[in-house]
Amino acid sequence: MEELLVAVYDFYLPEQIKELTTHFSTRDLWKLDENGLDIMHHAILSGHDAAVSLFNEMVSDLDNELSVSVKPKGYLHLSCLLGRESVAGLVCNGADTGVTVGSESVIWPSFDAIRNCVKRSKRLPLNTEELDAIEKVYHGIQTHKNSEPPLQALDVAAMAGHIGCIIAVLNSRLVRHCAKQSSLLERALHLGSLHAFRLLLTQNPDSDSVDFALQIALARKLPEFVAALLDFGADFKRALNGINPFHFVYLCSPFFYSRQVYAVVRQHVHGIDKLTAFLIERGFDVNKATPPGTFPLYSLLASLIQEKDYNPSRVPTSHINALEIILRSNAETNRNELEFINTNSVSDSMTGADRELASSALNAFFIGLQASDTWRVHMAEHLDRICLTLLEHGACAAGSNNDPSTPLHDLLRATATQHIIGHMHADLSTMSRMLLYFGANPNQMNSSSQYPIECYFAQLLGSTGMGGLIAYRRWKGTKNAAQVICCYLYYFTCKQKLCIILLL
Length: 504
Prior knowledge:
The protein is an all-alpha fold. It has helices spanning 2-9, 14-21, 26-29, 39-46, 49-59, 64-67, 75-82, 85-91, 111-120, 128-142, 153-159, 163-170, 173-178, 184-191, 194-201, 207-219, 223-232, 236-239, 245-252, 259-265, 272-281, 296-310, 317-328, 337-343, 361-371, 380-392, 407-421, 429-437, 452-462, 466-476, 480-489, 494-503. The protein has a domain at 1-205: Serine Threonine Protein Phosphatase 5, Tetratricopeptide repeat (Alpha Horseshoe), CATH 1.25.40. It contains 32 helices and no strands. The N and C termini lie far apart (92 Å).
């Protein structure tokens, strides 16, 4: 074996090395020595790219028992640590590459072993100053905190300042296959390599690559990457076409969502609440309302309902946390988007909003509940808490003078729609009591001269014809009839009470 190692470190021709390998079994070639190094490690340490290429071809002959180990062997990490550009590109075409494997999962030899092996290289030895710099990076890797995003091979290269290794890996066939983004910046983001991403930003990337990277970073809820782009000076207005970043995060992100991508960067995804807090901390305005239909609070409420529908069995905790964060930052709860449309003679279709325009936070919330197509009993208490949170932060339960359709009208329409859909257990009476406690008027009429309770029956009986009648009869046989109606009997006029009694 020593003769083979001499051939690797002395840069023998590939034919000569191949001839020497015939004297060993495949199992013996990849047997670890006392330093935990196999033949591929030695080829990388020497910088003999022809030997690396040769062993890449041979490694495919390894049986499953040899090729599968408890921990990756860290070929790519070692290449990037040493700055072996050509070797790093070749390693990406071989087995056990581990592009997205964290350094803590890699088998690392001692640095003394690395130093001694590198000094043996006849053509690519590293001087003492270079080895000392690499040793600092090596110790930084070993002391990396588990609470921080894991260090991938690209991060190792970035920490050591080897931009050539980063480019070689990102241009490799393997990365091009799994990360089809066009620019190096986007590929680094796709792989979740923060250090490499920051280093690439110093290489004067073109504006289109920066813009798209910003969109992806916001869509995938990656505060660290967004911070790197902010520090770089990314133009948010240009990248998002004038849309405020809150709205983009809440409602434009699904265009970039991918379960495969999420699987790659899942260790970096912090959630919508962390990104909301970060944007607020960096000075973005939570009350920016232009263009119409992008007011952050209402977009978040719409996103919250969407998340509930996408994952009906899971409570949208991150969205609820984000709601409390944005409200504590003095987000307006009574912004009337419709008033802006009317005042400025802008049609609803011209706004480009990804949601229905709302007249208040409660209106936005109840519109979302009305359009929701899933309902789970365990979600009710969280929805009640959202309503109470809005009221506690200034949402007007009585509604606006400019909008005769009060939150109570909206809530009862949402209740009726849920019952029409078939969610007979949907009980929104707790929210109704909250509205009444905070000053809602059950005797106020809307623009159609309907009391709130009339909106419920009009929606139930009139929206779907016979389907509504069937829903009403089905609803009447459940306890919801008492729960919905008894909440209001005390507050209504005698005429209204008579109508309710007749319906029951």
